[in-house]
Design brief:
By secondary structure, the chain is an alpha/beta fold. The chain is 42% helix and 15% strand. The strands form 2 sheets. An 8-stranded parallel sheet has the order 3-4-5-6-7-8-9-10. The protein has a two-stranded antiparallel ribbon with strand order 1-2.
């Protein structure tokens, strides 16, 4: 599995496995299947309510800890630095781990400067190998960088053929921040799996739409974490390293960009209130 080196020297596999919307009671099985398929990079979050299932699957797999790359995310809370350290300990306990590879601020809401200070401390202590953010738009990312000691290693943002974020990727690269795509398959929206451009490129290579979309992101230098509960799709989504898209094919996919989210805009005041007001245990 190819890896990308983050701004602090930590290496992250370019393709991982996401577990958003995998029900808690199914997570152990789903992650066990994903590990059996060959995934070694897992992406969960306190919000998803399934960290324990991820942890049980890791433990049962017997895979050496150093072979795995595990990410979880801090949800919005009211506890400042102390609350962040408590939330980190809770996630670590649920995952059954003694360190995290990557810990992300899940949303750019609440007192996230205090969250970041605590995460910097935990990173210095060595219990988090890399710290980053998610869903940060350029203004918030740059302000955090300008006002912190440690720049985020990663920004996990919605990125796929309909919402490509090439300019933002360029800005992140200039600041040493690795772009990571959530929703690399656009969560199945906009009829992505029958999109003519992706289908016709797939036919040429004997690959599926999902494989073309993932390959396109990886060739752009984007880290991807597709989710599937089905073993055959888990294997399909991993099988993207035996072909390459031509420059012309890459450009045809660039033409699919709508410049807009298929989910929602994190700057929408209604969403700030709705999502920023959610709390998890
Ligand atoms: P994805 O873009 O990965 O799409 C997942 C959907 O595509 C599911 O419905 C899945 O169905 C289907 N699918 C997967 N593979 C295939 C395939 N080969 N052919 C056809 N259908 C397929 O969406 P996600 O939202 O899950 O994003 C991936 C990960 O990103 C998440 O799991 C999570 O870890 C992270 N994420 C982070 C967010 C954040 O705010 N930081 C927000 C959203 C996601 P099925 O399972 O039935 O196969």
């Amino acid at each position: 599995m190819p890896q990308v080196t983050l701004n602090n020297g930590v290496r992250i596999p370019v393709l991982g496995f996401g577990v958003f919307q995998v029900p808690a009671e199914e997570t152990e099985k789903v992650v066990t299947d994903a590990l059996a398929a060959g995934y070694r990079h897992l992406d969960t979050a306190a919000l998803y309510g399934n960290e324990e299932g991820v942890g049980r699957a890791i433990k049962a797999s017997g895979i050496a800890r150093e072979e795995l790359f595990v990410t979880t995310k801090l949800w919005v809370h009211d506890g400042g630095e102390d609350g962040t350290k408590r939330a980190f300990e809770t996630s670590l306990r649920r995952l059954g781990l003694d360190y995290l590879d990557l810990y992300l601020i899940h949303q750019p809401y609440g007192d996230y400067y205090s969250f970041w200070r605590a995460m910097q401390d935990l990173h210095r202590q060595g219990v988090i190998k890399a710290i980053g953010v998610s869903n940060f738009y350029p203004d918030r990312l740059i302000d955090l960088i300008e006002n912190s000691e440690i720049a985020p290693a990663v920004n996990q943002v919605e990125t796929h053929p309909f919402f490509q974020r090439a300019d933002y990727q360029q800005l992140m690269a200039e600041r040493g921040v690795q772009i990571e795509s959530w929703g690399p398959l656009a969560e199945g929206r906009n009829n992505i799996f029958s999109a003519p451009t992706l289908s016709s490129i797939g036919e040429v290579h004997g690959k599926s739409v999902a494989q073309v979309a993932l390959r396109w992101l990886i060739q752009r230098g984007v880290v991807v974490i597709p989710k599937s509960v089905r073993p055959e799709r888990m294997a399909e989504n991993l099988d993207v390293f035996d072909f390459a898209l031509t420059d012309e094919e890459m450009s045809r996919i660039v033409a699919m960009d709508t410049g807009a989210s298929v989910a929602f805009d994190h700057r929408d005041p209604q969403m700030v209130t709705q999502i920023g007001g959610l709390r998890v245990d």
